[in-house]
Amino acid sequence: MVWFIRLLLLQLVMLLPAAMLAAQEHPRDLDPVVLTATKLETRAEQLGASVTVVPGDDVQKYHFETVEDILRSVPGVEIRRSGSLGKISNISIRGANSNQVQVLVDGVRVKSPTTGQADLSDISPDLIERIEVIRGPQSTLYGADAIGGVVNIITKKGKGPFSATVEGGAGNYDTYTGRGWFSGAYSLLDYAGSISHLESNGQFRNDSSDKNAVNLRLGVSLPWDSSIAFSLRWVRNETGLPVKFLSSAPPPLPNDPIIDVNNRQISETWVMALNGHTKPFEWWEVDLRGGRYQNKTTFVDLPDPAEQCAFPPCEFPGRFNVERWEAELDNHFHVGKWSTSSIGLEYRTEDGEAQGSTPFEASSHTRSAFFQQTFRFWDRLFMSAGFRVEDNSVFGTHWTERGSLAYVIREWGTRIHGGAGSGFRAPTFNDLFFPGFSDPTLQPETSFSWDVGVDQKLWKDRIRLGLTYFHNDFKNLIGFTFITTPPFVKGVNIGKARAEGIEFVGEVDVLDNLTASLNYTYTESENLQTHRLLAREPRDRLNLRLTWRPIPRLELFGEGQWVSKQFEPIAGGAYVWNSGYTTVNAGATYRLFQRYAFIQSVDLWTRIQNLTNEDYSEVRGFPALGINALAGVRMTF
């Protein structure tokens, strides 16, 4: 860890002299608009919640190939990818596991009703306007499964005259990528679309991945401040699964995996959203949203060559089809600029079907209503409070509530914020109905969480600091108890847990063309039944980034991440540790030429992941890739 910090500080010192001679960059929006925290576009400084907005331009700026890579540097966020590119990737926030975090695309839930998790590898990083990450309980606005927070991926809207971009790249591990996107607006119509391909052979036999994606957004502007927008996102992800799951003994998996040569998975995901907005009067505006999420997964694990079958049956074909329809109507009533009352109604249906070695079917429907009141006084004090009632046909009715406050002292560049609220996590279809380890009597998890923090701007807003303390209490947690027969685990409500800690965020515009950012999250967690740490939850996570434009044509960046060891429970009350790790990434973009005939620009780019070739696993037993270099060219018309 010490050498890592010294290396980055040395890089910063070396960059300073040259940077003093460089050209200035355009100022950035330091107070972005956020939609997810209130369901109304609101400036970030007015929110009591802890919010991070990742601009969609960062995808091209830092050459991210996956959504999980975009989110790795967000404070309070833990990303866990089970191996190389294309493998299952989950998110946790502030000690709340992936089942307790709601993930949306254009407001549509993309968590599977069967697993209860959003696999980030099934989401394309293309055509993204921004990603909003709201940390802390959000069940009042988003219902079940928003205990830890909400991630909302918002699709880019077309603007201005027609433009198009194509790019391609290649790297080691037989990695190839290709993308193309276009956007524009004509009269009342705006449009944007993209297509992309990413493939890699990975580091082991049967470690390949092949992802294809198509994204489209169409919008129409109407009178009376009205609009309609339709978005469609499709991803097909075919991956080899090289790590053998089943053996003659239960976990832990070894750090050096036993290779499964014919275990494969194909996942196909559709997300469709239709959003309408109108504001017939200054005091009343309406949002209407409809959405559909569907995922089809085919999984086949054939017996390996020359291997005896330890636990029949030894062929595990499976076809899983899940679907969710949802509709929501929100009314917002304004009294001048100081008060907004929001009333929302929502209905959704969920269906899940499994065919193959473990067949089952399940369905549910949910009706919910929420109320939220927001006050704004003297352009300094911002208060919000609300409640939600949600009735599910399987697990019953639950109430949640939340309140938050933000106070801005503009003369000092200070913002004080905080909030508290309750949440719950509904049992998934797998928890309730999956053959072998389900229990239809399981009850929802519940929580109460609060946080308080202060943000400070210094040096004419060139230094931006933030410190937040958070505390989460979880009850009635759904977990697994180990048993002696396959599948070796059974779902139970196991009791209570807590997670508390701090988030520190710092960003400095060292020069007009040199920015340094750092965030650190400390999470102290405990399962109050076993008095152990929560599984796979590190105490420490540190992210660093330097972005430098030494000349107008060239932009460089360096990233570093340090994650401490993680607790991994196994059978019989025993446990192991997944080792901590330090990774360093770097990259560059060079403008080869600009404005020639119909070509607007041509850029050369590169990104190098794990520059020091660290040997590590984000999930124990699923080794991450070593040094992974990718380079390519981008052309804009």
Please tell me the total number of domains: 1
Helix content: under 10%
What would you give as the CATH superfamily?
Answer: TonB-dependent receptor, beta-barrel domain
Could you give the count of β-strands? Answer: 33
Distance between the termini: 44 Å
CATH topology: Maltoporin, Chain A
Count of helical segments? 5
Give the name of the CATH architecture: Beta Barrel
Question: What's the overall average pLDDT, rounded?
Answer: 90
Structure, described:
This protein is mainly beta. The chain has one domain: TonB-dependent receptor, beta-barrel domain (Maltoporin, Chain A, Beta Barrel), CATH 2.40.170.20. Helices cover 6% and strands 58% of the residues. The strands form five sheets. The protein has a 22-stranded antiparallel barrel. A five-stranded mixed β-sheet has the order 3-8-9-6-7. A hairpin with a 2-residue loop joins β15 and β16 (284-301).
